[in-house]
Design brief:
The protein is α+β, with helices and mostly antiparallel strands and 514 residues long. The chain has 18 helices and 23 strands. The longest helix is centred in the N-terminal third of the chain and has 27 residues. The structure holds glycyl-adenosine-5'-phosphate (GAP).
Length: 514
């Protein structure tokens, strides 16, 4: 069995080899935690973005989209709390000189102990078979009880330290837990200090008295500052939402795990403005709605779970993550946050402009509350490619194939058209088919190498359908269609291809089921 770590390495190598993701500026040895999307990656990314955008803006009459600028007035980030509170607690190991996020070190420690408990449980489950009672085992096994106590105590201290912003206590937890640097093995740590994650730059030339501005760390603020514009020009009535897709930037310290945590990334966010007091109802509504969107892609319902936050961000009164089972375990792919009137209220204070809604039913003004759904496009991309990667042995031939079982609706190329040979008018016939289908589906034409090799290349990029044009095609206008996942082949009439494709890769069908 391949380890999860090796699997992840293979996914990264495959993503590069087949034009999904390249390291940024690779010819200069790359730029840490920054990535470029290649010819197949960009198609997949566009498809994910479209599926999200259409689900938000077309399926909900009361949600509209905007596209705000990345640069914003610096006061935005004072009002939003990012200047004072968008920090990570950092700690350095004095021997390796490596820098870590103190909270991540503690979380990893907790996960390790959790792993030890799970091992005991798995062992006992094996030993006792059907008679095994996990609850009873957890309540009585001494090793499990000791470890669980360690988890509970450390977690309680950790949550309190984060809430109180107590950096000395964070260090003390690391010391008490005897957490060692993974590189040097040493437990000699510096004090913990706060580090702001925003990138800053200068607007205007120095001579014109340049102003420090920030690259936005979330797209949400572009929506908040446009709340009045959209509400008034769109004559929007509460509850209503504003959706946006765009780049965000964070100077992440623990920037690893490929495109999971990047310094430049893309967010797909929707702020839903509601009447104060109804926010928990909408929060639960959006939690379920968003989970349904994820599950609709058919990547396996068991691969998703909610994680309700213990520690809330500076703007939230309730928050949950939708986690996906990545090769490195369950991790956040999307956050749903109840942000109260924190953002609009603060923008009102800092800008001095009235940002309120006049509710005609209630006959009064109020500052709307906000429920936000925020998903990382790149992280969603990673969930799709890591879930899609499959190594298989082909039954009859014993050949190995790597097949990307990407949900067909998201696949970069929907169908590939192959003439069996390069002569006898087959290429012309194949091109004719391409020319009718290419307006609706992203198609690829391939005539080089054996059909088997062409199949392998298309499997590796996740193309759901390959069409082969042979001599019989010239006689009866039929082709073979070969299915990526089952490798089954079927003879079909050319004029049926459009409807077959539509049925299998149509976003419309998926959207209708949401
Ligand atoms: N507006 C709320 C907000 O930004 P967040 O939990 O910080 O909330 C939302 O981010 C989503 O953005 C995350 O669930 C994740 O998918 C994505 N994300 C956050 N930081 C990221 C990073 N450094 N690299 C890639 N994706 C990231």
């Amino acid at each position: 069995m391949i380890s999860q770590e090796d699997l992840f390495k293979k996914i990264i190598a495959h993503s590069k080899e087949y034009g999904f993701i390249f390291q940024s500026s690779e010819i200069y040895d790359g730029l840490s935690a920054v990535y470029d999307y290649g010819q197949n990656g960009v198609e997949l990314k566009n498809n994910i973005r479209k599926y999200w955008w259409d689900a938000m803006t077309r399926l909900n009459e009361n949600i509209v989209g905007i596209d705000a600028a990345i640069f914003m007035h610096p006061k935005t980030w004072e009002a939003s709390g990012h200047v004072s509170a968008f920090n990570d607690p950092l700690i350095d190991n004095k021997d390796s000189k490596k820098r870590y996020r103190a909270d991540v070190l503690i979380e990893e420690y907790l996960e390790k102990i959790e792993g030890k408990i799970q091992k005991e449980i798995d062992k006992a489950a094996n030993r006792f078979g059907d008679a095994f009672n996990e609850k009873q085992f957890r309540e009585t096994n001494q090793r499990v009880l000791t470890n669980q106590q360690k988890i509970d105590e450390t977690k309680a201290r950790f949550i309190k330290a984060l809430e109180d912003n107590d950096l000395a206590e964070l260090k003390k937890i690391i010391e008490d837990a005897e957490i060692a640097c993974p590189i040097s093995g040493s437990k000699d740590w510096t004090d913990v200090r706060q580090f702001n994650l925003m990138f800053s730059t200068q607007l205007g030339s120095i001579s014109e008295e340049a102003n420090t501005i920030y690259l936005r760390p979330e797209t949400a603020q572009g929506i908040f500052v446009n709340y009045l514009n959209v509400q008034k020009t769109g004559r929007m009535k509460i509850p209503f939402g504003i959706a946006q897709v765009g780049k965000a930037f964070r100077n992440e310290i623990v920037a690893r795990q490929f495109i999971f945590r990047m310094r430049e990334f893309e967010q797909m966010e929707m702020q839903f403005f509601v009447k104060p007091g109804t926010e928990m109802e909408w929060y639960n509504y959006w939690k379920e709605k968003r989970l349904k969107w994820h599950k609709s892609l058919g990547m396996g319902n068991e691969k998703y779970r909610f994680h309700d936050h213990d520690k809330l961000a500076h703007y939230a009164n309730a928050a949950a993550d939708i986690e996906f089972l990545f090769p490195m375990g369950f991790r956040e792919v999307e956050g749903i946050h109840s942000r109260t009137d924190f953002d609009l209220g603060n923008h009102e204070k800092v800008s001095g402009k009235k940002i309120q809604y006049f509710d005609t039913e209630e006959n009064k003004n109020y500052t709307p509350y906000v429920v936000e759904t925020s998903i990382g496009l790149d992280r969603m991309f990673l969930s799709v490619v890591s879930n899609a990667y499959n190594e298989e042995t082909v039954e009859n031939t014993g050949d190995q194939r790597i097949v990307m079982k990407i949900p067909p609706v998201l696949a970069p190329v929907k169908l590939a058209v192959f003439p069996l040979t390069k002569k006898d008018g087959l290429p012309e016939k194949a091109r004719e088919i391409m020319d009718t289908l290419k307006f609706d589906f992203n198609c690829q034409y391939e005539e080089k190498d054996t059909i088997g090799r062409r199949y392998r290349r298309q499997d590796a990029i996740g193309t759901p359908f390959c069409i082969t044009v042979d001599h019989q095609t010239l006689d009866d206008n039929t082709v073979t269609i070969r299915y990526r996942d089952t490798m089954e082949q079927e003879r079909v009439a050319i004029d049926k291809l459009g409807s077959i494709m539509e049925e299998k890769v149509s976003m419309k069908k998926l959207l209708k089921e949401l």
